Amino acid sequence: MNNSKLRRKRMTTWGAIVVLSTVLSACTSSSAPDSIEHMHGLAFSKDGKEVWIPAHEGIVVYRDGKWSNAPGKKHDYMGFSSTNDGFYSSGHPARGSDLPNPLGLIKSTDDGKTIETLALSGEVDFHGLTAGYRSHTLYVFNSSPNTLMPTPGFFSSTDEAETWKQSDFKGVTGQPVAFAAHPDHAGTVSVATDQGLFQSKDFGNTFENITFDPRIAAINYAPNGELLVSTLDGKLMMQSEEGWTDILLSNKRPEEIITYMAQNPIDSKEWVVATEQLNLWISRDQGGTWAPLASQGKLK
């Protein structure tokens, strides 16, 4: 897939003015998975022992060299964002579930076994959703009016989605393609557009450009506060207090674009990354060496 096609695809997924995608129901198979067709995120469990892949068929789990399905209903999770006590998400209910469609904003603190509905049940499927890992500050791109958000735009909540405040979003240029909330600083959020990477420290009211590179595919804050950034030319970079560092992936073809990346909250040297081609790798030495977990969706 060329860069322009990927950019159009990700703009459809993210952004305050997107049209929500077609409703998709999740499968309910309990057998161990052998492949994945779609990925809607990538995360470690709060204890660092599992890798989670939210998808149309629920959450696929990697643990101790084996793949399985997470407990609970196999919801179609969208806008998946892990935290230190579980995860927030949106999407569509599994077949046989009594939850309204779409799910609105939901939360689980038991690895998906049970789901708590926080807000906008039956109203919204948030594809653009992120949460601070420890702050639990929520940010969403809202595409159309609903009972809590009267207009489209960028909104934040600090009280588990009970109330929302719309951000001014000043200083951002271009079409948003990805965004991420800082793990600890409630007001800090970064937004990537087709014109660069922007950071706000006042809940998204004002932003400053923190890089001149407009070729960004995905961003994510690691639990330790470092910002991981992938570019449309296949690079993976990390921003820390010391500045920017390039992360080399020896197994990856140069043109492959990283769409998701995550850092283990217990062991900061352990990372996982996924690409547009559904290739998945894990590193246990902070990117020094990588082992494959999936090849073109086929699970190892």
UniProtKB/TrEMBL annotation:
Please list every transmembrane segment annotated in the UniProt record, as residue ranges. Answer: none
Q: Which residues form the signal peptide?
A: 1-31
Highest taxon of the lineage? Bacteria
Checking PROSITE patterns in the record gives:
PROKAR_LIPOPROTEIN
Q: Which UniProt keywords apply?
A: Signal
User: What name does UniProt use for this protein?
Assistant: Sortilin (Neurotensin receptor 3)
In which organism is this protein found? Cohnella phaseoli
Lineage runs: Bacteria, Bacillati, Bacillota, Bacilli, Bacillales
